[in-house]
Amino acid sequence: MKKHPFLVVIVTLLLSLVHSVSYAFSCADTATTGVPQVECEALVALYDSTDGDNWKNNTNWKTAMPVGSWYGINLFNGNVTYIDLSSNNLNGVLSDELAQLIKLASLKLNANQLTGMIPSELGQLTKLHTLYLSSNQLTGTIPSELGQLTNLQKLYLSQNQLTGTIPSELGQLAKLQLLYLSSNQLTGT
């Protein structure tokens, strides 16, 4: 059987095109992600706003793998309940979209290079019992909306550049056991 050089070239080009096409990630494929689309989009917003491509560990993020296999993410009953990206080289601002993770119980983003303000929208995460944002470069005031986190037990905001007074609303956190605010530029009594 005689080989046709033109046909070999065409087949080779087609194969190289197939291999060069990258996977286009979509949160709309909830059967693959394993979580509601809005939760997937909130995680992608966090990834994008904190330079996820340069995290120390971004295993499976924005891939065809289920969200529960993404580094630092745990699920319960198909919802994101736990995020631990501590000491992972997150660099940038916290996205407001985190408020879409309505079943989130624990958010640990300490020891990174987060900048900007703490989003007041975090006050909508009423299931949250742990919030670790210490050892970053966060600025601005502590949002009074954090006083709406009625299940919050641990709040770590130390070693940032927070200013202003401690919101009186934090006094409403009846379940709060640990509060760390040291090494900021807070004022008042």
How would you describe what is shown here?
By secondary structure, this protein is of the alpha/beta class. Helix content is 17%, strand content 22%. It contains three helices and eleven strands. It has helices at residues 5-20, 30-33, 37-49; strands at residues 73-76, 79-84, 91-93, 106-108, 113-116, 130-132, 137-140, 154-156, 161-165, 178-180, 185-187. The protein has a six-stranded mixed sheet with strand order 1-2-4-6-8-10, with no helix packed on it. The chain has a five-stranded parallel sheet with strand order 3-5-7-9-11, with no helix packed on it. A hairpin with a 2-residue loop joins strand 1 and strand 2. The protein is globular, with a radius of gyration of 21 Å. 28% of the residues are buried. Mean pLDDT is 91; it is low at 13-22.
Structural class by sheet pairing and helices: alpha/beta
How much helix is in the residues? 10-25%
Order of helices and strands: HHHEEEEEEEEEEE
Total number of beta strands: 11
| Overall 3D shape | globular
**Distance between the terminal alpha carbons, to the nearest Å?**
91 Å
| Weakly predicted, low-confidence segments | 13-22
Secondary structure tally, helices: 3
